[in-house]
Write a structure and sequence with these properties.
Blueprint (H helix, E strand, L loop, with lengths): L1 H12 L7 H17 L11 H10 L6 H13 L4
Helix pairs in contact: 2-3
Length: 81
């Protein structure tokens, strides 16, 4: 299963500069899934984490109350997000 995500990320790395913020934000969600499913593996686009996260955050004008609650819960358990 992880091989699919590795291949997807590797293919995406070459196209990162041409991606829209919406595409980068979706790739950020893929990276979160990858981290949760395979915590012992390194996501191939981990060097772009900040850029992907920024794109994701730019898609929402402000975090919803649910998002704030989830972020607080993740902080409490020590998960970077």
């Amino acid at each position: 299963d992880s091989q699919f995500f590795v291949a997807l990320a590797a293919a995406s790395a070459d196209r990162m500069s041409n991606m829209s913020d919406k595409a980068r934000s979706q790739l950020y969600l893929v990276s979160l899934h990858f981290q949760l499913e395979w915590p012992d593996l390194s996501f191939p686009l981990s060097h772009c984490h900040q850029r992907l996260q920024s794109a994701y955050q730019s898609q929402e004008p402000a975090p919803s109350r649910l998002q704030q609650d989830v972020a607080a819960a993740l902080d409490r358990v020590g998960w970077a997000h």
